[in-house]
Amino acid sequence: ILSKRLAQVAAFVPKYARLADIGSDHAYLPIYLVANKSINYAVAGEIAQGPLKAASKQIKRYGYTNEIIPRLADGLMAIQPEDRIDTVVIAGMGGILTTTILTKGKEEGRLTKEQRLILQPNNHEQSVRHWLATQHYKIYEEQIVEEHGKFYEIIVAYYKTDCHYTKKEIYFGPVLIQQKNLAFKKKWQKELQTKQKVLSNLQNARTAQKSKIEEVQQQIAWIKEVLK
Ligand code: SAM
């Protein structure tokens, strides 16, 4: 059984996708998808020996050695042309690392315009959305889930020229801001309190930059507006 977070990632994987799960760790995601007859081909990429071993062990235990290929590789270097990967998952890593992996993957020719991206950064979601926007990806779906008091955003994107996002959409998520589910409201209520503390600290600090204060004031105004 998957965590709520990974179950939401799994829900965005299309049936019969050819999946690359980058940073697969125990390969729980591809194992779950194969067990549910949702997919029958996946590469489980890992940069570290320990997690790769854990993945191989689990794959063998479930008898999915024909369906799931564990590979030791940095980021999207796990993908080979003959895999015909159409769906790339990068879940459970920091947002900055996620964008670094995507940028390198593009440079190395492993990221193609046909692949669907399913990203679940543990932080810096805005940096991930900013990367997608500047690289001409359209965000088709998003979801936010709360698990053990933490909020996780899942972003689904495809390459598509001519789509533009406002700063506010990058900040909150273009789909999330439309849906405003309970987890979204809780996240931003919490964030509002944090920002208000940050602002008062900045205002009390003699060395604080005016532009920084204005930035936080702008964010507070946005958050209040979306929570209305
Ligand atoms: N994807 C799983 C999930 O969401 O539960 C596991 C997340 S685990 C916290 C992150 C994994 O990413 C670790 O096993 C780590 O070794 C791997 N990792 C970190 N950087 C990587 C990279 N550049 N390429 C491939 N895997 C990487």
UniProtKB/TrEMBL annotation:
Pfam families: TrmK. It comes from the Bacteria. Keywords: Coiled coil. Transmembrane segments: none annotated. Residues 185-219 form a coiled coil. The keyword DNA repair does not apply. The keyword Coiled coil applies. This is tRNA (Adenine(22)-N(1))-methyltransferase TrmK.
